[in-house]
Write a structure and sequence with these properties.
two-stranded antiparallel ribbon; about 35% strand; alpha+beta
């Protein structure tokens, strides 16, 4: 935990969740029974978007921070590999590996805080500057804009998680899309996200579903299937299987297989040669905790400031304090909504334009061309 003070503002930063797990997270006793008790009045098929967890089941950071960590908390610079690969096929393979790196371990029985409306998270690592904003609360929509002027790279994401309860499991579908732009090459890669599956009996969680990656400029596409233990036990947990192909001919160029939490390989269908494109141990192990470089520059809307007192309560296992301050944060938000409604005001995001269509769902576009350096930095 890193704590920085600025007058009355407290900033609490915690280690990114990595393959080693997070030793600071409290695991409640009789966890499965406690979790199931939360859902005793929830019908199967119910939307859990607005479901609030007690602090006992929270990790000390918000979903907004976790989204950001998947971009800036890395042990190996996969973005540079995407940019420096010698041809379009090698760049596409590197982008596939980078997309897999966005899939991060989660902790059974614990979840991040639901971000409040207008919450932000602004962090830099080297020349990469990352800015997130919670642009909608009901439904929850998070926007991300990241730029690297040195590499001439831009990322734009829009996340709309929709968790649903199905008796002995919860499945959270992540709507929205991610875009990675390699501006030096004039290439834009669009992709979706897998779903998070939480099973209570037997207890466990994994990423599941189909992910499609597409580059219109090169007509290269990838189809990846994330799966967990099947009924017959095939593939196993954390599995990825798929292919890379050219959309104009639909011919498979490479076969992809492996596990997102260990090794992923591609096999060239022309010559049968196989090679490793992703090693989770190198990318999401030994992750460093961000630090506050400029306390005066930290906004009051920063995630690590908004939830600082709650995070302190969780870290010290002072559950009464954590519950009280979390309730205070949520009550303040309800009061702000009530006040805006009474004035006939509509919330307008500060850093993004937000739109919605029935066909495409929610979409976000950044207001500014480049993300400025952040007051919070990740040590290199």
């Amino acid at each position: 935990m890193v704590t920085e003070g600025k007058d009355e503002t407290l900033v609490v930063l915690t280690k990114p969740v990595s393959l080693e797990g997070d030793s600071d997270v409290y695991q409640a006793p009789n966890l499965v029974r406690r979790i199931l008790s939360l859902f005793k009045n929830v019908r199967p098929g119910s939307d859990l978007t607005n479901f609030q967890l007690p602090p006992l089941f929270n990790i000390p950071k918000s979903h907004l921070q976790c989204y950001g960590e998947s971009v800036y908390a890395v042990g190996e610079d996969l973005l540079h590999k995407c940019n420096s690969a010698e041809n379009s096929q090698e760049r596409f393979i590197s982008v596939v590996a980078w997309s897999i790196s966005l899939t991060r371990p989660t902790i059974f029985g614990c979840a991040p805080y639901n971000p409040i409306l207008g919450e932000t998270h602004h962090v830099s690592k080297g020349s990469l500057n990352v800015l997130l904003e919670q642009v909608s609360h009901h439904p929850p929509v998070s926007a991300l804009h990241a730029t690297d002027e040195k590499e001439n790279i831009e990322m734009i994401w829009c996340h709309n998680p929709v968790p649903k309860f199905y008796g002995i499991k919860v499945e959270a579908e992540v709507h929205g899309r991610k875009q990675l732009k390699l501006l030096n090459h004039g290439e834009t890669y669009a992709m979706n996200s897998p779903s998070l599956l939480i099973k209570f009996l037997p207890p466990g969680l994994d990423w599941v579903g189909n992910v499609k990656i597409h580059c219109q400029e090169t007509s290269l596409e990838a189809e990846l299937c994330y799966s967990t233990n099947s009924f017959l036990g095939h593939r196993g947990a954390h599995s990825i299987k798929g292919r890379i192909y050219r959309s104009s001919s639909m011919k498979t160029l490479y076969e992809v297989k492996g596990h997102w939490n260990s090794i992923v390989t591609v096999k060239d269908t022309n010559n049968g040669k196989e090679r490793v494109i992703y090693n989770a141990k190198e990318v999401i192990s030994g992750l460093k905790t961000p630090t506050v470089k400029d306390p005066q520059g930290v906004l009051s809307s920063e995630s690590a400031a908004v939830w600082s007192a709650v995070s302190e309560g969780i870290q010290s296992k002072n559950w009464e304090k954590a519950r009280e301050v979390k309730k205070a944060v949520e009550e303040k938000q309800r009061e702000l909504v009530k006040d805006r409604n009474s004035r006939g005001q509509t919330w307008v995001p500060k850093h993004f334009n937000l739109s919605y269509t029935k066909e495409g769902g929610w979409d976000c576009s950044p207001i500014h061309t480049w993300v400025p350096p952040a007051p919070i930095v990740v040590p290199l």
